[in-house]
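Supplementary Text 2. Reproducibility record for the structural model of the 373-residue chain.

All settings were left at their defaults, and a single model was retained for analysis rather than an ensemble. We include the record here because the model underlies the residue-level annotations in Supplementary Table 4.
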Amino acid sequence: MADKKDIKRYRTNFEEERNSAALYRALAEYEKNAQLADVYRRLAETEEKHADTWASRLQDAGEDVPEFRSSLRTRILARLARRFGVDAVLPAMSSMEQKNSHAYDSQPEAAGMVPEEQSHARLLRQLEQGPRGMQGNLLARIEGRHRAGSGNALRAAVLGASDGLLSNFNLVMGVAGAELSGAGILLTGFAGLLAGAISMGLGEWISVQSSRELYEKQISVEAEEIKNVPEEETEELVLIYQARGMDEETARLLATRLMSNPDSALDTLARDELGVNPEDLGGSAWQAAITSFLLFAAGAIVPVVPFLFLKGTAAVAASAGVSAAGLFVVGSAITLFTGKSVLYSGTRQVLFGLAAAAAVFLIGRLVGVGLAG
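Retained model, structure tokens:
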């Protein structure tokens, strides 16, 4: 006989499975590759089957099956997939499935679902990694596509804004604690914004440009090897495909077919051996730099704005208030990748940010008093 704890667990499982199914349906709708869209539809069907199992459990316990309404996280991820493409949400989906793959380990009623959930986690992890992580016919379905780029960009956007907000909030609170004038705080805040954003942008430009130059060199070396020692390159491909689970005969046939065309051979070796997408070589260095600059600045401007309109204690309090709101938004956005509760992650981010700012404010106050004395 199910007790209250079991019924609560059944409801939670039902909601999780329905949300997963809804997300997979959204991915299937927005995925441009028909074969991959079919994969997402089949995943949705499996999650719906699991949800039906928990609905039956609730009915057997004499409970009503709750009317399903997609969660905020599900709606946000679906909109991101529609706006930026399926690739943008794959890292978040992969993290959620990885977490959910162990959710049923201690639930005896879900023993039959565990292998399917673990399979989903592995599949999404491979889709996120791109062609290098693929096996068998799944490799052929998405060969030539680099899947992780836009999802990593989404994660970088959240973290970039978080860095700008946290660093400049602490800087502003530190000088406010030292009782500088409003003009001095504004000057310090904008200086911190520009210095941090330029540093982030320059660092990102150097990182991406260095990667592009390295990739270009590696691809050039591969092109020379294809031309001069094609047999060795064929053997490398055979080993790569065998490591993914292919038998030697199939691996050799595929490798030989690919090596028959030097252009396709170079493209394949760049992707499979080097993990490089020849089409973008890691993306544009300038685009990465400008994006990083803007994201950091967007976060860093938040604690400065109140000092444009207010002075003294009112400005400090308003800065702390808008920064706390910004921290909560950032913490909530992070749940797209962690799968944690929005309230929990948002509140945790606010508490940590305010604690750090309070400490810096007090240090600023002590330093200011010391200098004044």
